[in-house]
Amino acid sequence: MIELIAEKSTGRILGAGAAGKEGVSKRIYIIATAITAGMSIGELTSLDLSYAPPFAPVWDPVLVAANDFKKKME
Prior knowledge:
Layout: E1 2-6, E2 13-18, H1 24-36, H2 41-45, H3 61-73
Antiparallel strand pairs: 1-2
């Protein structure tokens, strides 16, 4: 589970929370990097994240959360 927090007027990512088992730390690293870079939710949805069938789903949970958040902002 991933929860994103962003500034409503700009979409700039301000924070996140994540819970789960494997891969949670990787997802937090992605979001921490996005925060450090000053990225918006829209920019986060455009990231090209690694995909390896045995290790990661086609749609990374970070991208799913960002796309869901983006839809709510529209």
